[in-house]
Design goal:
Blueprint lengths: L2 H5 L4 E5 L4 E3 L8 E6 L1 E7 L5 E8 L3 E2 L2 H6 L6 E4 L3 E6 L1 H10 L3 H25 L2 H11 L3 H4 L2 H8 L3 H10 L1
C-alpha cells in the first residue's frame, strides 16, 4: 500500500547510515518509524552507565519510543542504525489518520501491540526462567540474522549477560 497516495499523508522517507543515531535520550520522539530496509537497535544506559540493548527491529517492522511518542514523556532510548536503513517517518497526526481511515487499522494495531506485549513479556520471563545458554539458543534459532548484524556486546546485553559469559556459552556449544 502506498500510504502517501492512499491517504494523502505526505510521509517522509529518511535514509540512516550505519552507526547513525536516529534518536537520543532526552530528545522527544516525534515519529513512529516504519523500517523499509535495514536494521535498528534500541538501547538505554543502566545505572552503572552501561548500554543495555532493549530491542532490535528489521525490515517491515515498526519502532518508536512509546512513552515519548504516545505520552510525550521524556525519552530515555537511543535508536541506532546497525545497517544502512531506509525508514518512513509517521507523525502522531498521520498515525491517527491511518488509524481512523483504514477500517481494519484499529484491529490490526491492537493485534500488533498485543503481539509486541506478549513477545516482550516472554523475553522478561525468559530472563528469570531460562538459563543464559537456553536464551542464547532460542535467540539463535528464532533470529539468526541478528548474529550477522549486531555486535556480540549488543546481543549479550539483550540476553542479560556479560560479553564474557556469552563468549563462554558460544565456546561450549
Amino acid at each position: 500500500m502506498n500510504w502517501n497516495i492512499e491517504f494523502n499523508l505526505e510521509l517522509t522517507n529518511r535514509s540512516v547510515k550505519k552507526g547513525e543515531l536516529l534518536l537520543e535520550a532526552g530528545q522527544r520522539c516525534d515519529y513512529f518509524y516504519y523500517i523499509l530496509k535495514g536494521f535498528l537497535r534500541l538501547y538505554y544506559f543502566n545505572l552503572e552507565g552501561n548500554q543495555v540493548t532493549h530491542w532490535f527491529s528489521s525490515e517491515n517492522s515498526i519502532v518508536t519510543s512509546p512513552f515519548s511518542f504516545f505520552r510525550k514523556e521524556e525519552n530515555i532510548l537511543f535508536i541506532e542504525a546497525l545497517d544502512d536503513t531506509e525508514i518512513l517517518l509517521i507523525t502522531s497526526e498521520q498515525f491517527s489518520i491511518i488509524n481512523n481511515k483504514v477500517k481494519t487499522a484499529d484491529k490490526e494495531l491492537r493485534k500488533l501491540f498485543a503481539e509486541f506485549a506478549m513477545t516482550f513479556s516472554r523475553r522478561i520471563m525468559d530472563i528469570h526462567t531460562k538459563t543464559a545458554e537456553e536464551r542464547y539458543l532460542k535467540l539463535l534459532a528464532e533470529h539468526p540474522y541478528l548474529f550477522q548484524k549486531a555486535k556480540l556486546s549488543h546481543i549479550a546485553s539483550f540476553l542479560g549477560v556479560t560479553q564474557q559469559s556469552l563468549s563462554r556459552i558460544r565456546k561450549n556449544i
